[in-house]
Amino acid sequence: MNMGYDIYSSTGIEVNLVLFTIVDNQYGLQRMWSSGPALSLGQVHGQRESGYSLCVVTMKSGDGRGLPSGGIGATETLLEAAHGISENQLGLRLKGPLRQLRIMDKPLRAGGEDKRRIISVPFWGFIEIERLLPLLGGRDQIGLTQVCSPDYLREFEELIGDLDHFDGVSRFGNRLMPDTARRIRHQKTLTDELPSGRILYADHDDMVFYAWRALRHAFDGKLDPFRYLGVNPLSQAFRLSDLKQFVEVCRGERLQKDYFRRAMTNEKSYLKPLDITDSSRPGKPAILYTLEAPPEMTGL
């Protein structure tokens, strides 16, 4: 029996956008608090929010929040639809690349409220916080939902376990390292199984989790994460400690300080030192670094 027509008529395609950004908590949070629902940090005990936070762009969705989403036009590719969502809903023309994630096709994945089955194709990318700040709030309550921060890493370790036992942790899920002695393979935990529960509408939590797992690959090995992401979310001149914390909140883990410094200052590094020191913080003045090849020169 030919079921082609029935399948086509009862199925819709949706494109979702997972856009990450980095917020300097010392200078950015106060400005965002004034936008009301524009910032969601979750419930972290004893929150200090020092350093950087990895966040994802979210919007008002029913009674909650969700990812920017939309349909696909008859003459559009999926990638064109993703860029269209960014331009039409957020007013942003992205400079960095968008990368497609796994297809989300679980039946009734939207909670069973829609009569039609919706198959979703998420894309993920990265954007500088400076381009987002003017857009926060508004009718659609464009804002940011925190994915990871130094405070979250500290809280996770205090309540759940040593970070060394995990292959990355975030508010949207984590992955436990394998243990051959206990015959444990990699185990992922999503928000359904975390104490805080679901964060976003429908299965958008899962999209953020898988996008975050893909984002972590930008920091594997000797890869230049800025060229991979297509943007420089830090300033043109930054401390190694700033870069280290940027990597830590993106990967959801802590890095050994001396090992990181050696890796970033060897002759094959994607950084170059400047003849400038920064004495604006307590302690010894720090040498500033910049990128050997800025992302805008890579053709991305």
Which short descriptors sum up this protein?
300 residues, single chain, alpha+beta, Nucleoside Triphosphate Pyrophosphohydrolase, three-stranded antiparallel β-sheet, eight-stranded mixed β-sheet
Strands, count: 13
Main beta sheet: strand number and arrangement? 8 strands, mixed
Regions with pLDDT < 50 over 5+ consecutive residues?
1-9, 43-47
Q: Percentage of helical residues?
A: 25-40%
- Taking all Cα atoms into account, the compactness measure Rg is 20 Å
Kindly report the CATH topology.
Nucleoside Triphosphate Pyrophosphohydrolase
Number of domains: 1
User: What is the CA-CA span between the terminal residues?
Assistant: 47 Å
- For CATH, the homologous superfamily is named as Nucleoside Triphosphate Pyrophosphohydrolase
Please write the CATH class name.
Answer: Alpha Beta
Strand content: 25-35%
Can you give me a brief rundown of this structure?
The protein is α+β, with helices and mostly antiparallel strands and 300 residues long. The chain has helices at residues 4-9, 25-33, 78-90, 129-132, 150-159, 204-216, 225-229, 240-251, 257-265; strands at 11-24, 39-40, 52-61, 64-66, 69-70, 99-100, 117-126, 143-148, 166-170, 173-176, 187-190, 271-278, 286-291. The protein is globular, with a radius of gyration of 20 Å.
Topology:
Elements: H1 4-9, E1 11-24, H2 25-33, E2 39-40, E3 52-61, E4 64-66, E5 69-70, H3 78-90, E6 99-100, E7 117-126, H4 129-132, E8 143-148, H5 150-159, E9 166-170, E10 173-176, E11 187-190, H6 204-216, H7 225-229, H8 240-251, H9 257-265, E12 271-278, E13 286-291
Parallel strand pairs: 1-7, 2-8
Antiparallel strand pairs: 1-3, 1-5, 3-4, 3-8, 6-7, 9-10, 10-11, 12-13
